[in-house]
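Human: I'm a chemist; would you kindly supply sequence and structure tokens for a protein?

Assistant:
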Amino acid sequence: MDFELTEEQRAFAQTARDFARAEFAPHAAHWDAEGIFPKEAIAKAGELGFCGLYAPEAAGGLALPRLDATLVFEEMAAVDPSTTAFITIHNMATWMLGTWATPAVRDHWGPLLTTGEKLASYCLTEPGAGSDAASLKTRAELVGAEYVINGAKAFISGAGSTDVLVLMARTGDAASGAGGISAFAVPADAPGISYGKKEEKMGWNSQPTRTISFDNVRIPADHLLGREGEGFKIAMKGLDGGRINIATCSVGAAQGALAQAQQYMQDRKQFGKPIASFQALQFKLADMATELVAARQMVRLAASKLDAGDANASTYCAMAKRFATDAGFTVCNEALQLHGGYGYIREYPLERLLRDARVHQILEGTNEIMRVIIARRMLDGDAPDVIR
């Protein structure tokens, strides 16, 4: 067991840190305040390979381990969790398409997505199917050589501004459950697709969120990902990595907040001395750092389990997502508290980091659902000996 990063991994992290400080830091507050989706900055990330980190090489990706991808995402999220979170979602959708698409679809979309020239959205959630994703109602009917899609999706990141939709739709009958769901690559501008209003959100303002409606949308049959009925399994495999990604974004946001708090404690003076000299605040900083390191190590453990194809990887991913998103939000909140009133104003990045980190406890499966996943596994007879 080696907790030290390799020189190559450190180089990846340093490249991401330098990129984020140069391309995100000067603009992140403006993107947030004005609701700007920074597609040009994302494309620059794509030039460094950050839009296809773990996508297969056949699709133009770097095929990196998930552990290495966390290093990149964490550094970017320390500056701008919202934009980074979209890049992680794009990576997830790109990996799914690159892994399960037919060669023709993969060869067309893969190079465009992995370079960031084109962007992807992940479309699972529906107005009536959130935590119970297997109850989704969007349908795809095979008619001749085409699938005809009808239905609606909700809370879709990037919707209206992306180029391809990785869509889960029902191909089985209404009672078919998870086994009746299939996955598709759908061009985002296909006739019959319409987008709802841009949602006004608490955070994640540098990426648009909209509903998507499908009215007799026709796509070629070869746009099916994998085989019919495999869509839910594909979606869940995507979410294992997605949960690590969002957990990493929380770790990054917390790292950014911790660094801000540490510097502020040195600079801010009250009662004639820096507030860093007050033991109560020292203890708060110590707890923040401890929780952050624990969250980071749990995320990296889960990523390693996923890379190794461990049979319990999904459980570790759920654990990492639950713990790191809760801990990350707490660290951001404590950092804001250490800033006092200054933490609450937009001149400082704390309130933005806090707002952006909050949604991580909800998406990619709520933390309550993460507990369900973990508990189900822990009730198996061998779990206490295996999950350690």
Observations:
- The chain has twelve helices and ten strands.
